[in-house]
UniProtKB/TrEMBL annotation:
GO MF term set: zinc ion binding
Coiled-coil residues: 281-315
Domain C2H2-type: 13-41
Superkingdom, natural source: Eukaryota
Alphabetical UniProt keywords: Coiled coil, Metal-binding, Zinc, Zinc-finger
Name this protein carries in UniProt: C2H2-type domain-containing protein
């Protein structure tokens, strides 16, 4: 006979004080301790409700008294419409619907396809130049099973989050609202084809070139000039001198601060070949050390050249040898003078 057949699955444990029955001994023991032997009760100091369970009293006070006394929390993340200043909502989609239904803003989606990510970046840079706008990837790639999705938003979209201590006035490019302009890319991992959904409608701001940032290609060009040793003042002046009559572009408004930011981001300030600003004492000292090192290297090269020339002079035995050496030295001297002028 199986042991499990000896166990009474319907075994019940009745209470000796009342008619209640329990399926296990632990529940019976708890019932007797609380309902028949315990004389402790917990009373609510708001309404004098009595209960034998402390947990029940805490829940009663929280639900019936404390939560009703507190005012409802205000939604601090409401988005205000920049056009009418009277409508507010908590989601981007509702605000865009408000633009369309109330203010007759046309929000249309354009769908494009690109063979690779490089062609998409070329198109994106051209669109940014035409729209006088920049689209930033704020959230990074979203990797799915078969595709990789990216969301680009207008650089003026969103809210300014103040992080300073209020010691100085901080300006922001954010419109503190929703700008519908966006780019969504979906890249197929197998084919590499990129499907683009593009919304070109901007709301809440105008086309202001001065609020844009330098593009990656423009920053790379400035970094190349800095690495070659061109001073920052010369770079900013030369860029502004290239302004044409077809309109002002962002790189035409390059300031000394832009150059300094590029210098810092590319880590060119204290590099061996990078331009070092000569305004502070530390930079001047480093620059003097570099110039002294370059002069020592030049002196060593001169010594090796002189030694090699003395060896050639010992090989000169007649007029023919002297004529050959003289003809060889003539173009070298002309080349050196040409590079010195």
């Amino acid at each position: 006979m199986c042991i499990c057949e000896l166990v009474n699955v319907n075994m019940e444990f009745p209470c000796v004080f009342c008619s209640k029955k329990f399926g296990n001994r632990n529940n019976l023991t708890r019932h007797v301790r609380i309902n028949h032997r315990s004389t402790t009760t917990f009373r609510c100091y708001y309404c004098n409700l009595e209960t034998k369970f402390k947990s029940c009293l805490s829940r009663h006070i929280t639900l019936q008294h404390i939560s009703k006394q507190k005012p409802p929390k205000a939604n601090l993340n409401l988005i205000e419409c920049p056009l009418c200043k009277t409508f507010s909502c908590a989601s981007r989609e509702k605000m865009i619907s408000h633009y369309v239904n109330t203010h007759d803003v046309t929000v249309e989606e354009q769908r494009l396809e690109f063979d690779d990510f490089g062609k998409f970046l070329i198109w994106k840079e051209a669109i940014e130049e035409v729209d006088v706008c920049q689209y930033s990837d704020r959230y990074g790639p979203k990797d799915r099973r078969e595709v990789v999705t990216r969301y680009y938003r207008c650089f003026r979209d969103g809210f300014f989050r103040k992080r300073s201590k209020g010691l100085r006035q901080v300006k922001s490019i954010k419109v503190n609202g929703v700008c519908p302009a966006s780019i969504k890319t979906v890249k197929n991992k197998v084919t590499g084809v990129i499907c683009v959904t593009y919304v070109h409608t901007h709301v809440g701001h105008s086309q202001e070139v001065g609020r844009m940032n330098l593009s990656k290609s423009e920053r790379a060009k400035i970094a190349g000039k800095l690495a070659s040793g061109i001073p920052d003042d010369t770079i900013s002046d030369s860029v502004r001198d290239t302004m044409k009559s077809d309109g002002v572009k962002r790189h035409h408004l390059t300031t000394r601060k832009d150059v300094w930011n590029v210098e810092r981001s590319f880590n060119l300030r204290l590099t061996e070949r990078g331009f070092i600003r000569g305004n502070d004492q530390k930079s001047v000292e480093v620059k003097l050390v570099q110039e002294e090192s370059e002069q020592n290297q030049l002196n060593e090269k001169k010594m090796r050249i002189r030694k090699r020339f003395d060896e050639l002079m010992e090989d000169v035995q007649n007029d023919k040898h002297a004529e050959i050496l003289w003809k060889a030295l003539l173009p070298i001297g002309a080349t050196i003078r040409a590079h010195s002028s």
